[in-house]
Amino acid sequence: MQIVGVCGPGADRVGDRLAARLGDAGRVATVERGAVDATDASAETASTAVELRADQWRARGGRRDLPQVLDDLAPDHDYAVVVDFPGARVPQVALGDADPAGEVLVDATDADALDLDGVSDALDAVEPYETLESLVERAKSSPDADRSGAIATFTGRVRAKDGPDDDPTEYLEFQKYESVADERMAAIREELEARDGVFEVLLHHRTGVVEAGEDIVFVVVLAGHREEAFRTVEDGIDRLKAEVPLFKKEVTTDEEFWVHKRS
Question: Which pTM was predicted?
């Protein structure tokens, strides 16, 4: 799923226009700030209320933050347009004097001056947002899914501490040589998929800032049986860590350092 934020004066109008434009290329979700309808009786009688109709749905309750909502949307949406969340660490369209926390994808003096084609082109070059669930859904859509009896997965996450006396890790920051890393991951995937009984291998490593407790890397394997699925998952993460050029900076409560310089 590709994510784009819009912030600044006129963000709501731009969000609507952008969602309509991206809707020509895939399924779009919009995430906007909104007020809760206090008159809805279901909000008083249930922790979470979901209303389903023929062509729409709505839900309230079960407190969700933006990262959780994006995780929920990723498996079955191609795009997410996030309106008026300037603090979100997502690629942003900045209008006027907006100064978002995330990377500025495109800026414009005002909503009317924005070139939507330019936004769409810039978004195509951004690494997609993946979750374990979105990768599993991709694996299930493989043409060979009817021959598979197993999906095995691995998720690596940011560990706050190695030992009880360690300074807590606040976040890790990952950088990669884009073309080299992508080519190496593609080669690993191709070689693993050449194994007997292995139908699909998906590898994804997040870049940028990943905070303590968040997911970093995913490996998903679709295979005929559990033996080749488990074996290929283990080989996939081992080869990704050994062969893909990724650089990691660790920031603790006491210091920050590039891990490769200490090895």
Answer: 0.84
| Total count of domains within the chain | 2
Residue 71 CA, chain-centre distance (Å), reads: 7
Task: Read off the CATH number of the domain in which 22 is found.
Answer: 3.40.50.300
Written as tens digits, the pLDDT of the chain (263 aa) is 999 999 999 999 999 999 999 999 999 999 987 644 544 544 456 677 777 777 777 777 666 788 888 999 999 999 999 999 999 989 999 999 999 998 999 999 999 999 999 999 999 988 899 999 999 999 999 999 999 999 999 999 999 988 888 889 999 999 988 789 999 999 999 999 999 999 999 999 999 889 999 999 999 999 999 999 999 999 999 999 999 999 999 998 888 888 765 55
Same domain as 101, residue 10: yes
Strand pairing class (104-108; 48-52)? unpaired
Separation of first and last alpha carbons in the chain: 35
